[in-house]
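## tool: complex_structure
## caller: assistant
## args:
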Amino acid sequence: MKRIFLVLYLSILTSLSFGQQGPTWIWYPGDFEVWLSNDMQNRRTERGTYFPPFWKMDSHYVLVEFNKEFDLPNEEQIQIKAEGIYNVKVNGKMVSGMPDKLILKKGKQKVNIKVYNQSTPPALFVSGKNVNTDKDWFVTYEDKEWIDETGKASDASGTTYSKVGYWNFNRMDQIPSQFKLPTQLQKAVYQSKLNDGVLVDFGKNTFGFLTLHNLIGKGNISIYYGESKEEALDTAKCETLDYLNIIQSNKVDSTLLNSKGFRYAFIKNSENVNFSDVSMQYEYLPVEDRGTFRSSDDELNKIWEVSKYTMELTSREFYIDGIKRDRWIWSGDAYQSYAMNYYLGFDSNTVKRTILALRGKEPTVSHINTIMDYTFYWFLSIYDYYLYTGDDEFIENIYPRMKSMMEFCLNRRNHNGFMEGLAGDWVFIDWAEGLSKKGEVSFEQLLFCRSLETMALCAEILNKPDDKLLYSNISTDLKDKFFKSYWNSEKNAFVHSLVDGKQTDNVTKYTNMFAIFFDYLNANQKDGIRDHVLLNDKVQKIMTPYMRYYELEALCVVGEKDFVMKEMKNYWGAMLKQGATTFWEEYNPSKSGKDHLSMYGRDYGKSLCHSWGAGPIYLLGKYFLGAKPTSAGYKTYDIEPYLASQEWMEGKIPTPKGEIDLFVSKNKIKVQSPIGLGTLRIKSKTLPKSNHGAFVKQDDHTYSLELKSGISYQIDYKSL
Amino acid sequence: MKRIFLVLYLSILTSLSFGQQGPTWIWYPGDFEVWLSNDMQNRRTERGTYFPPFWKMDSHYVLVEFNKEFDLPNEEQIQIKAEGIYNVKVNGKMVSGMPDKLILKKGKQKVNIKVYNQSTPPALFVSGKNVNTDKDWFVTYEDKEWIDETGKASDASGTTYSKVGYWNFNRMDQIPSQFKLPTQLQKAVYQSKLNDGVLVDFGKNTFGFLTLHNLIGKGNISIYYGESKEEALDTAKCETLDYLNIIQSNKVDSTLLNSKGFRYAFIKNSENVNFSDVSMQYEYLPVEDRGTFRSSDDELNKIWEVSKYTMELTSREFYIDGIKRDRWIWSGDAYQSYAMNYYLGFDSNTVKRTILALRGKEPTVSHINTIMDYTFYWFLSIYDYYLYTGDDEFIENIYPRMKSMMEFCLNRRNHNGFMEGLAGDWVFIDWAEGLSKKGEVSFEQLLFCRSLETMALCAEILNKPDDKLLYSNISTDLKDKFFKSYWNSEKNAFVHSLVDGKQTDNVTKYTNMFAIFFDYLNANQKDGIRDHVLLNDKVQKIMTPYMRYYELEALCVVGEKDFVMKEMKNYWGAMLKQGATTFWEEYNPSKSGKDHLSMYGRDYGKSLCHSWGAGPIYLLGKYFLGAKPTSAGYKTYDIEPYLASQEWMEGKIPTPKGEIDLFVSKNKIKVQSPIGLGTLRIKSKTLPKSNHGAFVKQDDHTYSLELKSGISYQIDYKSL
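## result:
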């Protein structure tokens, strides 16, 4: 009873302190994220062996100065806690010792606190009546506050201050460097003895720490994990395992220190070691349950649910690729996780953390994850983030790192102004057999062009006309050259690449489909691409859900939503039929049985829970429920619901301020939005009727209605 | 007895492993140095308050890959220890687990070990019969070893490998991150009760950890430190102190955790706390005793000895400025420590460590210590290091960082190609009243020019003709412009600065004296500067031993050695008369009593043990004993002894290979060198006679003799 009361009490405190703009732990922006991402990404193991990333990992600044000015109505006491040793100045005067409490006088008070910590990011928490660490504190890694021989301090005019980084560490005892994701008990659904061991099944793919109950004895335990039963039982080839050496004289419940992503665990013990039961601590990122989707189509609902669970498992400290193998942050994979997230948890903090972690720190010596396309997705992700959230604070914060990243790219252009893979650059595009990376690949130029446009847009948001002009000019030139170089009017398509300055014969889907949803094309070109590329069986098929996502998006844009629904049900539905509890890294319908499990030349190399498998969340939210912002943060937005083969569908679309609630059947639409000014656009045989406002006819069968926030619209119409 | 045996045994092991090219701990070059220098420099306190540096502190790479290829005559077992978690590959194949032992097969074996550690620098120790970590391993922070979907690894051709960093951690249990300087017991020479406390005098300035013996009770102890008795007793104003809260029921000998630089400690305790005695643990850098100086002049000998002790105290993990206050690494101060070191311990490792720590890591965003002149001294120090040691391995190692530092400087030139203080730049030059830093200061251009020449020299050493040409061209242009802009033939001097493109009237000593020993001048210009600047009482006097050092060097070069000897005895002799046990940060003969102790507007602000106070070591070694290398590493060298007011002098001058032994009286010289080809040049009334070789007449009274290594020369001459 007492304990429950305490928990309630704490959560009240937390919500109160939010309301009061209460204190939060602060750090140099990106430093906690860089540090935590290093920690997370270096937890990968392969058959018990530590498996490190192959790109540069950055570090936090070890010495940073935080400051803010206050005008206090009264004297007040503040409390100070830091991760690291620290020095406090008030109005430029050093305070003696390393005070954890301090009285600030009435009136103007400038507080500077400098924190040093080599092991973990210097972080600060100050709480008082008015003086609290919050997002509006400033920070620098170099205050240049030298004093001359007379004792006069420098003017420090060369010092660059930026706004601090922060997250949700809103209590003094929530030490940032001690951050751990929460866990909860998960029991196995099935256990059986076989092959001198125990096979434990948790019923679906999961992530966390195995617990052996009533463990006792002296000897060895081997645990072989599998996303499939085949993998767990194949002790010689399974991708992850734990070898334990047990010396335990009394029975204990022992939970492993290393987390794994798995569904099955096959456990073998030597003679003198025993345990009674196996469970696990499920480790997860708490994300608000916001976006939903339900329809008359059970298979589609299942696809959405499994996509959601795939997202749940791959949304962690950061958005990762897959739970079994890499557990790394890949920019291209994360770019899709962000987009799905906008239709699911709308968890801005995890998007920001991931963008910061991927960027890392100066100097920039390689592409993000060493992959050229992944650098470009990083740029694109920032504008998307702004469009969905309207968070210009973050654009301001990240813009200097965008500029330096773009500088890096611009310096790597070849004599034609194109991006070509230099030594050490990975031109990825997709996992696809025989895909050429040679010469000037059109896909990279397209993403590069879009990245430059993103720079111009961000420069505009931040009111930097010179930058805007600079990036606009470069992107306009590049776009022009891109069309001239790659568009082939005989093929009605962009070709894959130039080699030695000449178009190759090869046409692949990538450039063509991206050009569609980047809105780079006229109607003729779009139709040409649809017919000659997207719907052309002779063009190399896409095998990864990763690029499948973009392919289906492009088809939605060119009006092939029925086709997309069929494909979606076929492709993701087929994985469900194969028993998928989460969606896969790659799915090839022509394979069967154990062959589905292999990749990278390894029998169980394929990830069966891969973030990019969760694409239906995005497609269903954006193109079937049909909601998307048209200006930043849903200030304006469109809803164009499309009922494909379903009788009805309903869902919630999260926005920065509550959810848009939508129900669509063949003759009824209900919609209510908490935000902005929406435009509902539907096709109907007759003029639809609404309980509020009036529909306007757009063309033959298209009608639009202006949606105001807070109003519950009930609409009658007749679907075509 | 047993303990002594053990110590001997260990030292034999150490020397044996040197002989065998035994293993040593390795890391990414500069990373240990950066990490350790952060640690050291953040130990500064001011009256008990932590006092951090104001410039950017860098970090180690948290994830690095070490590798080397071997051709093994037989199978061998290796032992592996790392600071951090690690992954081992042999011939590209991952070894299971995190092995501390491993069998390598006969034949070609490529060992790659990747270590991750966020808290302290990733470091590695491997020992085997042939496979040992040593200076020839390679390291990278980014191996770019991605694999494609078929399992094929990238060619990693974009990866930059460099040679590893290392020092003297030659045993597996000498963990780099646990490095501490050694300590030894030092007893107080005097203790007396006064003012409700105990004043303890250690007889001379010292550095270390105070020990309170038989400490018991519950209450407070306050310790006020002083380099002077006045400071220790002035509890309200002394610069360093410790406040202790004691809860101790049994008597213990308690040693403080924080080191201090001091001579006196004034200790006050509250009623219920007692201790019986006070001693200290003297903390020091072990440096070989190599350079010596002795003469018939006791005062001069004392000046040399006190200089040596000043160097001993300020040579620590790195060369620091002073022991009481900053305890930071300042490039300008260190530049002099290096030079003194070449005539004292010839401790190359500490020079290298300090140069690496000062440089820090990319990106370069400020001048070193934020001071423009200090960046230039850093360049100069590298060429000096090469000249004295001949260590081209280090030049190769540091050259990329020199290039990027120079890039930073070149990008900061103004429209005239001159360096002018930009926002946040500190133009220091010297502590001197009213010294103008406005406009284009001639002193900075001169150092800049010399730095560019250093770049060209290093490019030549490393056989990089393009770089050599680039830097030579810029330096030649700059030198030309420097003479045209600043030389004033009416004043027979360089003026201090240009403001708005026009020469200011001001003539200061700095530029003029540096131009002399940079050998930028013709004989007329030299004479002009000597008469109109150096020996001109109307020109602002230099008050710091820091610039005094260069002033006296310039006077030596223009043939004023008698004058210099007089000045040296006057200036440093006067500090001795004031009771100095170490030399000071600043000495102004016109001050008296307590006024000598103040600086920076604080009563005890002045450091009484400052590295730049030890200049006589350098002046006596280079201009009176008169030995200096003329090509790298004493391959060739000059000895031009000059007996000023002394009857005789003798000394040892360290070289990379033993010491040059020299005795000089008015009619006898004895000299023996272990290295290179020397030229002894002396003034004599008649042709000097040598037991080996023959003197050659150079001009009226100057004769030279070729010195071969290993021969004991006995020379008779008649001094002028």
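## assistant note: Chain A has four domains: 2-175, 183-283, 292-622, 632-716. Residues 1-20 of chain A have pLDDT under 50 and may be disordered. Handing back to user.
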